[in-house]
Each structure stands twice: as C-alpha cells, then as structure tokens.
Write a structure and sequence with these properties.
Helices cover 12% and strands 46% of the residues. By secondary structure, the protein is mainly β. The strands form 3 sheets. It has a 4-stranded antiparallel beta sheet. Strand 3 and strand 4 form a beta hairpin. The longest helix has 8 residues. It is globular.
C-alpha cells in the first residue's frame, strides 16, 4: 500500500508507521452527529455502531477478508441499477455482508501482495470510512492491506450471516 492510498480519508486519521498502522476514529462520532438526519437508517446503524471501530468486538470489520464481491445490474422499469454485495470472513471466524444499493460508482485498486509471497488476495481490512457527499450519496472507502475499495451508493446495509 502506498501513502497516496492511506491519505484519502476525510474524517478518520490513518497512516502507515514503521511498526504498523496508526488509526484514529475519535472525530467520526461528531461528524455523524452533524449529518445523521440525511443518512438512510440502515447505513446510519452501521456507521454509528459502537462496535464499528472496536477491534475487540467480533462485529467490527477490522481484519476481515473478502470471501466474494458481487456486482449485479438489474432492470428496474426502464432503467438499470447496479447493486454490490461484499461477503466477508471476519477476524473472529465469523461472516457478514455489506450490500450497496444503487451504486453510482466504484473502484478497486489492488496492489501486489508483498507477504506471503504466494498470496494474491486483497489482504486484511484495516480501516474504513463512510461519508455523506454533497449529492447526498454515501462514499464508503475501505483500506485493506493490499487494496483500496471505494463505493458510492444510496444506502449500505450490514448483516451478520
């Protein structure tokens, strides 16, 4: 992961250090308090959950690995919509999913794994941030050890499987 990947977050502070990573989500609750009235209920539940950034809680996505990433286009009336579902293996051998409704855009930047040598995964989930954009869409940025995923959508739903 290069420094450019870890400096895009707006509220949460995250940077790579010589002995690991520095993460500070302490400003996030104040941010959520300012925008909560404009955020869909399902997304707000995930964003404001006390366990979201608590690495000791099995519901926290930290250390999760991608099991599958599914992109679907469906015909709704005269228009097609894109929905994304990410199934994850949690850091505590648990499973959960994140579903993104009406994805307006998404990007995946995958880097070569440095260790272990034969691993070609996205790596472990390090940190994420969901912000409300000026167009009232949600931007979810997830930083993995070997990838960065950004999804801009109308709603985000977290489910324990």
């Amino acid at each position: 992961m290069d420094d450019q990947d870890v400096n895009n977050m707006k509220i949460i502070k995250f940077k790579q250090t010589h002995d690991g990573f520095f993460m500070d989500s302490s400003a996030y609750p104040n941010y959520l308090n300012k925008v909560k009235d404009k955020i869909p209920e399902e997304a707000l539940q995930f964003m404001s959950a006390s366990w979201h950034y608590d690495h000791n809680d099995p519901r926290c996505p930290h250390d999760s690995k991608i099991d599958s990433l599914i992109i679907r286009e469906n015909l709704i009336g005269d228009f097609r919509v894109t929905n994304i579902e990410m199934l994850l293996l949690g850091g505590y051998d648990n499973r959960f999913s994140l579903s993104y409704s009406n994805a307006h855009s998404y990007s995946i930047k995958k880097n070569k794994c440095e260790w272990p040598k034969e691993d070609y995964s996205h790596g472990d989930w390090l940190i994420d941030e969901i912000i409300l954009l000026n167009d009232n869409l949600l931007m979810h940025e997830i930083i993995f050890t070997d990838a960065v995923i950004k999804i801009k959508a109308t709603d985000i739903i977290y489910k324990i499987l």
